[in-house]
Amino acid sequence: MARRKFAGDAATPAEDNSGARLPGVTGTVWDGLGKDARQVTDLQDAAGNPIKNLTADARGMVPEFRGPDNDVFRLWVDFGPGRIAIEANDTPDKLQEHAKGTDPHGDRAYADQRLQGYAQLAGGNRAESSGVPWLQVEGDGTGARPVLQVTGKGNGNTAFQVSESGDATVKNLAVHGNVSADGDVRCGNLATQGTVTAKNVGTARVFSGPKPPENPAPGDVWVQYG
After folding, report:
1. pLDDT over 70, % of the chain
2. Contact at 8 Å (CB) between 192 and 176?
3. Among 22, 38, 64, 85, which is most exposed with the fewest C-beta within 10 angstroms?
4. Residues 94, 71 share a domain
5. Containing structural domain, residue 153
6. Where are the annotated segments for Disordered (predicted)?
């Protein structure tokens, strides 16, 4: 808890019943007016030194002091005529500190905690085509579950669509099997309705016969028979 600042201003003099100031008089601090009120002795002066009572200065003014360590904002002081309520005068400072605080209400920390279970994008969690051109999805490696699964409605229930330069033609893409390395699809097929262009496919040659070709090149196809 915090200690609030009291007195030290023109609104807190030590006075008698006639309004005359009382220089040098000692007063007490209380937590209320009733008969069950208790004297407050957990006080500090402006320099942080412990004090139990208040002493008016040579002008009869109550010097600045700090209240108890429980964030109380109202106390009662008694310099003889009776208890008078005074309130903490650091509220403007507290308000300014609150307004400039990084997370004064704790709502940012709460939101961050609630969002921990959601997928986050790289680059400050901003989806920008120049900064985050790809959505990267990593599986947990347990069970026979897909890493990325996309389902859709319409267009023949197309699962994946690539549109370039406003081309509305739907291009179905289906990958079956296990991908063990970049560009390596094993135990399955890569199927598409359009033309497949790849480094080892564009100049492929087809051979047939009982023996493989003598000078095979990447992409060549050999159909063995005989």
Report:
1. 60
2. no
3. 38
4. yes
5. 147-194
6. 1-24
Tokens of 106: 């704790």
pLDDT tens, 60-85?
999 999 999 998 999 999 999 999 99
Is the pLDDT reported for residue 108 higher than 90? no
- Alpha helix ranges (H) inside 50-121: 91-99, 107-114
Lowest mean pLDDT segment, chosen from 29-33, 86-90, 193-197, 213-217: 193-197
Residue written as tokens 């040098």? 24
Rounded Cα distance, 226 and 223, in Å: 10
Place of tokens 């279970």: 117
Angle, alpha carbons 212-214-217 (nearest 5°)? 90
Burial class from Cβ neighbours inside 10 Å (0-12, 13-18, 19+) for residue 65 reads buried
* Residue closest to 50 by CA, chosen among 38, 41, 59, 58: 41
CATH of the domain at 38: 2.60.40
